[in-house]
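Q: My collaborator sent me two sequences in one message, no labels, and asked for predicted structures for both. Can we handle them in order? The first one she listed is below.
A: Yes, handling them in the order given. First sequence, followed by its structure tokens:
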Amino acid sequence: MKQIRPLVVLAAAAALSSCGTVGRAADAIWPFNDGGPRERAPEEGRISILSSEQDLAVDPQLATRSIMVPAPTPSSDWAQPGGVASNAPINVQGPSALAVADRRDLGAGSNNTVRIAAPPVIANGRLFFIDADHEVHAYDVEGGRRQWSRRLRPEDSRDRRARGGGVATDGARVYVTTGFAFMAALDAATGEEIWRRRTNAPFQSAPTVAGGRVYAVTNDSELVAVDAATGELQWSHQAIAEPARIMSASSPAVSGDTVIAPFASGEVVALLGANGRRLWGDSLTRAGGLNSLSAINDVAGRPAVDGGVMYAASHSGVLAAIDMRSGQRIWARNFASTQTPWIAGETLYAVTVDGELAALDRQTGGVYWLRQLRRFRDEDDRRGRVAWTGPVMVGGRLILANSLGEVAAVNPATGEVVETRDIGGEIFIPPIAANGAIYIVNDDARLTILR
């Protein structure tokens, strides 16, 4: 079994991102192993399994309140890595059962030297995806026919492999970040390269496009804002460089003319999109963890913005709600996560690094319910750690996937797992949803469509 990639720590990420040995280096410092001590299972539904480091517990004051799930809304596009520029999509209309409608190969999958990093995006009937070999593909959503492919690699470099990056689209163009230290714009209809912009470091993150600009964070924690029409650099912001990070492809959030960028140091910074002026910043770091992994502060999931509030979580164990105007925290919880929180109505859903799914009140951070998802391949022997990705809300249900190739549908009002399906392969990239379907890409670049 391959190691569970989302929690692999990438040391000296900027130096290694375009090196062919980066996969072996990352795997060598994989934090989990099959020979670790067994853990005592908690009493179901009462207290967090991470209670030694987290303070999650169901809030008795919320016992009499019911979670209201917003009605599903049709959507034909998922144009950004986070669905929309704010990383806070709607409850997308989708299937009521996890029935496999189609399977397709999208390109090159992960191996010891290269990795699939980011989800596909969908717009105007096309699905765009960058595979592990840095080849961008465009497919017809309905028929699955490949319309074009474009391999991206630097012309003046001996490097032929890199990891990191992702895609976003505005419908007319596809914007690509790469582990080769450049971003590019391609024509969405033909794949023709329109412009290319070199950067000072490779990209692990995927881009976000909004307001005529493309935003992305390099591996040395520099946020760049590039003109979407020309590729010219408009401004940049250098955050604290952090050599230890999580292997993920996060992306900034954009709300109005405010950009929220996550960094490996645990920082989240708000900047003015027009000129890069810093508005406020916060550090989602937590001291006093029980092991060295707790010191990894990376905000590996995407920050999500809705209703004038930003929500984000760090690996070291802070989930916070921050007022977009003032930058003041509204509330914070001890909650270690590498995933993007999902906002639905007045409820926030998030999953911990240990596979515990929680529903929280958006206003107070109080916990409605907790649900422990599968933690190990072999639950009896506590061997083979399982990593979860998601959630996304589709058709009024929370959809998550894991490193065993399982997909789970959860009732958002109660936390009950109502359906599971094994679709095969290892899954580290969150599901996306559009056109009444759920799209899931496994580590072999195999797309499964659920309708």
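Q: And the one she listed second?
A: Here it is, processed independently of the first:
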Amino acid sequence: MEEKEINKIKLHIEKFKENQRIQNKSQSTISSYSRRLDSFVSYLKNRDEQDITSITQDTIYQYQIQLCNEKKKTGQPISLSYQESYLVALRVFFRYLTKQGIILADPTSIIDYPLNKRLLPKIIMTPKEIKTILNQPDTDTLLGLRDKAFLETLYATGIRSQELINTAMHDIDLANQMLHVRHTKGGRERIVPLGEIASKYIELYINNARPKLAAWNKEPIKILFISCDGKKLTPATLGKRINDYVKKAGINKTITPHTFRHTCATHMLKGKASIRHIQEMLGHKNLNTTQIYTHVEIGDLKKEHKRTHPREQTQ
């Protein structure tokens, strides 16, 4: 395809990104689409199509074959989830072009996504292991109390690391032991139970540690969990603190913040929580409806959390 037509497609992509922003899609989603569409544009440079209207189902099919044959630097095939993410971006883009009347028919309608088996996470902590890790922070210190609070929060709620890092003071409802998760993957807000133990340590942290940490920052900060200099925690700091406690606990596993998420879900599932409640709590994108319109009442979710989560059981 000629450079002039490639530039026109790039312009369509910019307008598509703006359309996604109008639809309140998260910046991470828009950036992901942009990177994957750049790959498709590079593919078109070596094709004979005259313009965007001449892209056919065969064009898309050949691109899918190229993705299937792509290799990592190690020489291994790229993952099926990687392939699927590129095809999803392409389909969303061409649906937009069709709705805008830029093309008459959507050539991506033929896409069959690669069969990607969703395997359970390989690393799950046992109840004994998680309890040992949770007992490692020294709650007599400012950072130890902070760490105890965020570790309990990760395990109690199963929220993602970025969701934890972006949690603001006003997102916490200690009276009702609930957490409003706002900065979510895909922009789907949700409300999840904190439970008694996580709520207890968050309250202790807010009253006894956070004000002293915040005093090191000249600017007011609304974020709940802050660093030793009163600023927002970074993913690197969060990961390092967790890794230090795992080593201190003598556990020979690679534990990340996401491991807490998997462990929370697995332990609740073993405790006979329904899949529906777990999906609701984790905010998975394959929910039938968003959190706002779900048929599962938050009161029911809170009771299910109380009944099935190990940290909510009588000690």
